Amino acid sequence: MKKEWLTPEELANETGYSRQTVNKWIKRENWTTTPKPGVQGGKARLIHIDERVKSFIQSMRNLNEPNASYTAQQNSLPALLLSSVQQMTQNEQDLLAAMILREGINGVLQRLGISEE
Q1: How confident is the model at residue 62 (pLDDT cuts 50, 70, 90)?
Q2: Residue 30 CB: number of other CB atoms within 10 A?
Q3: Using an 8 Å Cβ cutoff, are 49 and 4 in contact?
Q4: CB-facing half-sphere around the CA of 95: CA atoms within 13 A
Q5: SS3 assignment, position 13
Q6: Per-residue DSSP letters for 45-106?
Q7: In angstroms, rounded to a whole number, what is the distance separating the alpha carbons of residues 13 and 3?
Q8: Is the pTM of this model over 0.85?
Q9: In the sheet that 45-48 helps form, which strands lie side by side, from edge to edge?
Q10: Which of the two ends of the chain, N or C, has the fewest CB atoms closer than 10 A to its terminal CB?
Q11: pLDDT in tens, 67-93
Q12: Cα angle vertex 70, ends 17, 63, to 5°?
């Protein structure tokens, strides 16, 4: 965090948590705050972003991030066909279904120029 002082809303935006959650942290963790200049009523506060706040935010991020495993999966034909059909309009889906029912799989493969040879 680049600023030394942030409002609860700014800290919420940076962390992805709600402003209410940030306000709970302020009370529970006893963070240093000061009244926001120019705002009357005493509720608008600025949070001092010191090492305690930074380490707390970092620990909360680590809690919420699941262990990521990245693998490249090759699309199987059924998954590819399903994905393709889902991207079609309802009318296109109806026409494809009618053609498959009318001509069968062999007829569809012939139209596509696919033979068993």
Answers
A1: low
A2: 9
A3: yes
A4: 5
A5: helix
A6: EEEE--HHHHHHHHHHHHHHSPPP-----PPPHHHHHHHHHHTS-HHHHHHHHHHHHHHHHH
A7: 13
A8: no
A9: 5-6, 45-48, 33-35
A10: C
A11: 666 676 677 888 888 989 999 999 999
A12: 30
